[in-house]
DNA sequence: GGCATAAAATACCAACCAGTAACAAAATGA
DNA sequence: TCATTTTGTTACTGGTTGGTATTTTATGCC
């Protein structure tokens, strides 16, 4: 029955539209398998979406973390983030993680817990990045590192979410650049 | 049967949780009326949510437009917007309009059309506000007025949406202030 | 071949959805 | 006082949801 293929199909479907708008039935149909097969493999809808999220995290979100840990300085990293959010073709229909986070209340407990875990990991990565920048003397705003990290994360999320709603990428880049310019002004 | 009361009940329910998560059945039960009564009055679920949105626009969104048209200068208006988005108790569970806009694809055609109309009106109001500020010499960024208006609107929407997800209002104010500081730096 | 075992699919469940047909009660008008 | 129209209710339709009990099919194994 090939669990990997099912995960791929489900990830694509969830990602392309929205987890809340794709039923278990639809996924079975798309993957060409029967419902009991799916339930034997993943236990429940929650189990499936959790597995999908795991896969998404290691296949896609890892790239975002990579940018943050690359250590190319404040400006270099911010530019890479802007490029990723506003032009990377993989984000053309938005980010599955952000879609899940936006519809938190509709998720099962397993998936919800994983979303919050990933969210915390992301926040920590942003914090580490900003701390390094501050220690290097590249950034010295009055803002706390935690607030700056949250701000940065939310601006990225906003930009990618706008990608999903068909906004012009040039416009998105313009707005994100503006939003992140608060980190580099002196 | 009192259509006003039904609209109030529906508006509160949609607003408190999310339009997509409140069924017609639930509204009938909350309002203490039967389903056929509701359908005779509003025609369809789309008709109801459209009527609710109309009511919301004139009761709540009007206040936002009022702030924008008050003409208290760039700084004064931005401060008023920040106050409204991050501390007004009415926005504690988010904004019904933004919730509808975020779930566009789930709306009926009438409601969708109204959402887009309101969106355009809002954009126009932000544009007028920024134009006035620029003419008064209070703002002279390299940004186009349209891009600035979109940016401003999205930042307000982001802040209010974060209110709905239980984020700390102080933190929200901090982030929104930071985001809007791009308009007042020299 | 014959048979146990595991994997799959068919067909079903109860709960909910938006929407309506049929009917009873009450208000209105002549 | 009686016909008409409006208002509201009960009870239903057809469809979809997540989840399963049951039956069929395929796979070893002897």
Task: Write a structural description.
The structure is a homodimer of 186-residue chains. The first copy, chain A, is mainly α and 186 residues long. Chain A has a single domain (3-183), classed as Tetracycline Repressor, domain 2 (Orthogonal Bundle). The first copy, chain A, has 9 helices and no strands. The model of chain A has no long low-confidence stretch (mean pLDDT 95). The A-B interface holds A 17-18, 20-21, 102, 104-106, 143, 147, 150-151, 154-155, 158, 162, 165, 171, 174-175, 178-179, 181-182, 185 and B 17-18, 20-21, 102, 104-106, 143, 147, 150-151, 154-155, 158, 162, 165, 171, 174-175, 178-179, 181-182, 185. Chain A binds a DNA duplex (30 and 30 nucleotides) through residues 1, 23-25, 33-37, 39-40, 44-45.
The CATH topology of chain A corresponds to Tetracycline Repressor, domain 2
How would you classify the helix and strand content of chain A by structural class? Answer: mainly alpha
Question: Helix tally of chain A?
Answer: 9
List the uncertain runs of chain A: none
CATH architectural grouping of chain A: Orthogonal Bundle
Largest interface: A-B, 25 and 25 residues
Order of secondary-structure elements of chain A: HHHHHHHHH
- Average pLDDT value of chain A? 95
Whole-number total of structural domains of chain A: 1
